Amino acid sequence: MTNSSIFYRSLSAFLMLGPLCFGQYRFTVEDASEKYNAQITVEECQNNNCKNKAAITLFSKSGVKLQTLTSEDFVMNFEKEIKLSSPGTVKLSHGMLYDDAVVFGDFNFDGTEDIAIRNGSGGNYGSASFDVYVFNSTKKQFVPSTELTDIASNYQGMFDVDPERKRLTTYARSGASLLYTYQYQVIPNKGIDMVYEKIRDMSEDPAKVIIKEKINNKWVVKKTSE
Fold first, then answer.
1. How confident is the model over 182-204, as pLDDT tens digits?
2. Which end of the chain, N or C, is less packed with Cβ atoms under 10 Å?
3. Residue 69 in contact with residue 98, Cβ under 8 Å?
C-alpha cells in the first residue's frame, strides 16, 4: 500500500473524557487524501472501538461538501482505550488506529482518487472487509465498484496497490501452513483479471511453493521450494 493510501496512524490530542452516547460521534480526517477531507459520524463508540452504522461525508480541501457514503457495519479499533464526549469532534491522525477504516488511493489507475470504507470483518479469518467506490469523472462522484469490493472483502483486509505495474495484490491463508498471494490487473473499461497466484505450503520443510502467472493469456506454472 502506498503512503497516500495508508490512513491516519498517530494518537491525537483531541480525545476527551465523557459519557457514552449513540449516533453523535464525529471524527475528521484531513491528511489521508490529496484532494479530500472527510467527516465520519458513527453510531456507537466505547472503550477502544467504534462500530455499527456510519456516514462518511467528503469535502473538498476548500470545505465544499461533495458526497456522503454510508457503512452498515463500520469499524474503528483504536490502539489505546478511549472515552469520547458527545457532541464533539475528534481529529484522526496517523497511528491512532490498528487498521485503516477509510482508505484513499487510485485503485483503478485512471488518475483519480478512489475510496474504500470499512464495512465489517467479513474477510479471510475475520479480517477487515471494505466497500470500494471509484470516482466517476462523468458523474463527478464516487460510485460503487462490485469487483473491487469483492477483492477488498474476501481476502485478508484491504488490497495493496502497485501503481507502476498497475496491479492489486491481496492475501489469504488456510490454517497455519497454507499462504496465498493473488494479483489482479485492472483492464480499462472491462474490469479486473487475476494474473498471478502464489501458494506457499509450510507443512513441509523446506516449504513448497507453486506460482501461477498469466502470460499472453496463458497460465504458466512454476514449482519451487524455499
1. 999 998 778 899 999 999 999 98
2. C
3. no
Nearest to 13 by CA among 101, 90, 100: 90
> Which residue shows C-alpha cell 469490493?
149
CA 220 to chain centre: 30
User: Whole-angstrom Cα distance, residue 64 to residue 67?
Assistant: 10
Q: Which helix (H) or strand (E) holds 74?
A: strand 65-77
124 phi/psi in degrees, rounded to 5: -55, 125
**Can the peptide bond before residue 206 be classed as cis, meaning omega within 30 degrees of 0?**
yes
Higher pLDDT, 58 or 94: 58
The Cα 10–Cα 18 span in angstroms is 21
Q: H helices of 26-167, where?
A: 146-153
